[in-house]
Each structure stands twice: as C-alpha cells, then as structure tokens.
Amino acid sequence: IADDNSTAPIIIHESNQYKLWFKQDGTFGIPKANILITIRNPRVGATAEDSARLELLKSMMNEWLNEELYD
Predict the structure, then answer these.
(1) What is the pLDDT of residues 11-59, one digit of tens each?
(2) Closest CA to 62 of 35, 31, 40, 33
(3) Helix (H/G/I), strand (E/B), else coil: 68
(4) If I label 18, which of 12, 34, 35, 69 is the partner at 20 to 30 A Cα–Cα?
(5) What distance in Å separates the CA atoms of residue 53 and residue 56, rounded to the nearest whole number?
(6) CB count in 10 Å sphere of residue 50
C-alpha cells in the first residue's frame, strides 16, 4: 500500500464514522495499531462527577486493551 520510505501515514478508507490510516513500520516490520475513540455525549464533562467517570472508563479500557492485545 505504501513504501517503506513513506514518512506520513495515508488514509486507506474514510467514511462518516471513521478514518483508517496506514503507515508501514520500516524499522521493525511488525504491525502496530493505535485506536482513538471519540465519545460524544452532552453529559461528558457536564459535572466533575461525569468527568471523573469518563477518566475512570478511559483508564479501565486502556488497561484491559493493553492486557488483551500486548504480546
């Protein structure tokens, strides 16, 4: 899809819901994924309690994903 000398990732698929980017790792040749999830909800950040709950949810998800997917 892209050569090893590419310095910037390229969009290989785009829709209203997401963009899929690709950049070949030219150093190690091992696939790597980064996921960015955006939560859109009017309550997010509405109160200190809601903000704290969101931070706790993000931390829990990151911890779970790292345990499940790290090899």
Answers:
(1) 999 998 888 888 888 888 776 777 777 777 787 778 999 889 889 998 9
(2) 35
(3) helix
(4) 69
(5) 5
(6) 14
Contact 2, 22 (CB under 8 A): yes
- The answer to whether 59 and 48 have CB atoms below 8 angstroms apart is no
Q: Show the tokens assigned to 44.
A: 């997010």
DSSP class of 4: T
Nearest-10 Cα torsion for 6, 19, 39, 66: -50
Q: What's the pLDDT score for residue 59?
A: 93
- Backbone angles phi and psi of 28, in degrees to 5: -110, -20
d(CA 12, CA 16): 14
5 has pLDDT over 70: no
